[in-house]
Specification:
Elements: E1 2-4, E2 17-21, H1 29-45, E3 49-55, H2 58-62, H3 74-83, E4 88-93, H4 103-115, E5 117-123, H5 136-146, E6 149-153, E7 157-158, E8 161-162, H6 165-173, H7 177-184, E9 189-195, H8 200-203, E10 209-213, E11 222-230, E12 233-242, E13 256-261, E14 272-282, H9 290-314
């Protein structure tokens, strides 16, 4: 898969392609259905499949006060596209000047001129161009005039619920991990390198991997039953996301992600790991001392092992 930082990087331009345009935050089930249409069309015509997306998210530039927090990092998005068979990803820098480009100009000078699409695939609610003046009727007229096949993907529903990045964020904020994972079509995870922490966990017999993820969005603070992926292998674990209020009074302390990996004692400093959220267990709380904290952790670990034992039987 090739990645270009803006369509102007293409040299030479593409003679033909199948294109989809959007933000694709989370690459959830709805996005996956759309991308499957892109790769299928591209295979039929024997042309490259293209995802044309934007960074930063347009809302970050146009309305920073209510900016959308991306569910995953950009690297995850690219990994998902590659797994699904996309040939080319174009990441257009979204600026205030770019936001002023009219729908006609965008289609003519960014899409048609450089990508020459045989087919354009978009979601049912797709809007584009200055003031979001470009909409589905505009696109239908433009494509008809240019002889471009247009495929509009209807809302994707999972258990009678329309899948959207907003609904996934809401579910994760509520600790509804299973619901979020169902809408994503995969397990939500946090990725980062293990850093040296205060080593409090080790002193009480529960060593933790302290992870600093490159994320915008933070799910509900608390304790989760998790799977930690290290070097391609999954390990059952229990993870706290939060500020550790027993030791930090300031509620504005930076968010920490601390995972205790069961039956694992290797050195992980500097290693990149992925922590997959399986189940929200409880909110984080402030304890009245180390002994109370240790007792709660032991209870949490017992319940986590029980959870994974039960789900092992179910699978």
């Amino acid at each position: 898969m090739q990645i270009y930082q803006g369509v102007r990087q293409l040299n030479p331009v593409l003679e033909s392609s199948v294109v989809t345009i959007g933000n694709f935050d989370g690459v959830h089930l709805g996005h996956q259905q759309l991308i499957q249409n892109v790769t299928r069309e591209a295979q039929y015509f024997g042309v490259p499949s293209i995802v044309y997306t934007f960074h930063p998210h347009p809302m970050k530039v146009l309305h920073p006060e209510r900016a959308t927090e991306r569910l995953f990092d950009l690297r995850d998005q690219q990994e998902q596209f590659e797994t699904m068979g996309i040939d080319v990803v174009i990441i257009e820098e979204f600026t205030k000047d770019f936001a002023k480009v009219t729908p006609q100009d965008f289609l003519e000078n960014y899409i048609v001129k450089n990508l020459h699409p045989k087919t354009l695939v978009v979601g049912h609610d797709f809007t584009f161009g200055a003031d979001r003046a470009g909409n589905i009727p505009f696109l239908e007229k433009f494509c008809a005039e240019k002889g471009i096949r247009l495929i509009i993907i209807p809302p994707f529903q999972q258990n009678s619920l329309v899948v959207s990045s907003t609904k996934i964020r809401e579910a994760l904020k509520e600790g509804q991990v299973e619901k979020a994972n169902e809408l994503l079509g995969r397990t939500y995870y946090l990725r980062g390198h293990v850093e040296k922490g205060f080593q409090r966990g080790r002193t009480i017999g529960v060593p933790t991997a302290n992870i600093h993820p490159d994320i915008e969005f933070v799910p509900r603070k608390g304790v989760y039953f998790t799977q930690t992926k290290i070097g391609g292998h999954y390990h059952t674990s229990i993870t706290n996301i939060g500020i550790n209020p027993t030791f930090h009074e300031d509620k504005k302390s930076p968010i920490k992600i601390e995972s205790h990996i069961f039956d694992f004692d290797a050195q992980l400093y500097g290693v990149e790991v992925e922590v997959f959220l399986c189940h929200f267990h409880r909110d984080e709380k402030k304890f009245n001392g180390i002994e109370e904290l240790k007792a709660q952790i032991q209870d949490d670990m017992t319940q986590a092992r029980r959870y994974f034992d039960e789900h092992k039987k179910d699978s």
